[in-house]
Structure formats: structure tokens, C-alpha cells
Amino acid sequence: MQAVAAHAAAVSHDLALDEVLVAAAWLHDIGYVPGLVDTGFHPLDGARFLRRSGVCEQVAALVAYHSCAEIEADVRGLARVIWRQSSLARRTSCSRTLCATAT
């Protein structure tokens, strides 16, 4: 997680996403926390938790879509759920950026 956050911090200035990208990098695996597991798909569970907690929508969207999660969501039958949860990620290139930097 520290390596992902460090990489995000290094590239975030160029993308004008300083705080958003770094926060998402630190939080991207929060959905693994046992008490947060709902669907069993950590990007979605993490994003749902962050939204309920009042975290910025961009951060939650990046967490939902990190590591190109929409592909795995489709395989798990959760594509419609993740799609509804993160409409912001579809409208920005942010999710693609985190996908590329976090993998």
C-alpha cells in the first residue's frame, strides 16, 4: 500500500489530482477489512464504505475502479452494481490513471 501511495504522490501533481489520487491510493484496499465486507469484492465494498463515511466521491470512485475492477466485477456478476456505484469514475480519466498506477 505504501508503494502505491508513493507512486500516486509522484504522479498526482501532473494530473491535478494531488489529494484525491493520494487518498485513493492509501484507501484502495480498505474493502478487505472484515467488518466492511458485503459483496466480497473489495473495490466495491471499500467504495460503499467510503461513501457512507462521507469521503469525497472522486476518492470513492477511484477505489471502486482501481486495478480495472470493472472487468472482475463483470466476471463476478457485479458489473451493474459497480457501474451504478461509481458513475463519476466513468466520466473521468481518473479511474484509468489509478488503474495504470496501482497495478
Strand content: under 5%
Main structural class = mainly alpha
Question: What number of domains?
Answer: 1
Q: How would you sum up the global shape?
A: globular
Number of strands: 0
In the predicted model, the low-confidence regions spanning at least 5 consecutive residues are 90-103
Task: Please explain how this structure is put together.
This protein has 103 residues and is an all-alpha fold. It has eight helices and no strands. The radius of gyration is 12 Å and the shape is globular. It starts with a helix and ends with a helix.
Helix and strand topology:
Layout: H1 2-12, H2 18-27, H3 42-52, H4 57-65, H5 69-75, H6 79-85, H7 87-91, H8 94-102
Helix pairs in contact: 1-2, 2-4, 3-4, 4-8, 5-6
Key attributes of the depicted protein:
single chain; 103 residues; mainly alpha
How do you describe this structure in short?
By secondary structure, this protein is mostly helical. The chain has one domain (2-102).
